[in-house]
Amino acid sequence: MLSCARAARPRAQSHSSSHKHGEDEEEIFFEIPEFSLMAEVLLDEAAPIAKRMRTAFLLKQVGDAASIEVLAKGLRSPSVLLAHECGYVLGQLQNKIAIPLLSEVLRDASVNPIVRHECAEALGAIGDAAAEPILREFSTDAAEEVSETCLIALEKLAWNAANPGVRYASKYASVDPAPRTDEQSDTVEVLQQRLMDQSKTHFERYRAMFALRDRDSAEAVLALATGFADKSAVFRHEVAYVMGQMAHPAAVESLKVALANEQEHAMVRHEAAEALGAIAQDDLTPYLKQYQQQDKDKIVRESCDVALDIADYWTSDEISSAVNPVQQ
After folding, report:
1. Cβ of 77: how many Cβ atoms within 10 Å?
2. How confident is the model at residue 12 (pLDDT cuts 50, 70, 90)?
3. Which of 47, 49, 186, 272 has its CA 20 to 30 A from that of 327?
């Protein structure tokens, strides 16, 4: 039997305009396939990557212990993109039973650092103090993607402890690595200065980043774009990620520069590709297709697959065909 789930999506609009949020959102309903089918699709290495990524989203909507178990198996996929997405989803579910599953992968130095980074970030998203020892242990990991993320997650746990009962609500319904700063008197210029203040920790700078994201303006996008000059790939990848959440056309040029730079870290380029898919302008389809077909990094090629699928999702009247993993 198929069950129903719902998610928010922007109202239909032209490809050239940005997706709206808040008052302009509408809820869509779609059917979730049998659990056994979703598990099969997620773990099928021969299945199209976009189909598997949609399935991870559907498992997030279910969010029970069985879904967590399957997503944890996905952490071991040879597809770095799929494995890292499973880590992200496990963090978003905020269920403590995922802590040992994520910790096991974080400990495994043979796993791609992008996946281990996502596991560390997920432990911070779950927000339970039980994760502090392992985050502290790997806060000095040889892989900067891992050590930097562990430090951010540790500050998130400390913030949670210092602010008991405070529920931080993201405008984008995501569990963020840091709560945005809520000083409404802060100008975009002030937030941009905090964003790029090298004397502050990543966590503190992330707070400015998410505040800029939630301003949802072209001015805020351009301020965020200055973050692509940062020396940290983790920081740059987060800039691309929040631009994908905003889906604002003002981000297109800086995202295209990040994707086109073959010297850029793959974790940044892959987020840039998916962000361009979220923006979903007509002229971005052939641009993404060239990277889908020719890029040297598998995670970038697969991300372009997903980006094209995302673009089709946001612009399709047949939403069920875009999210139902039964269909190609």
Report:
1. 20
2. very low
3. 272
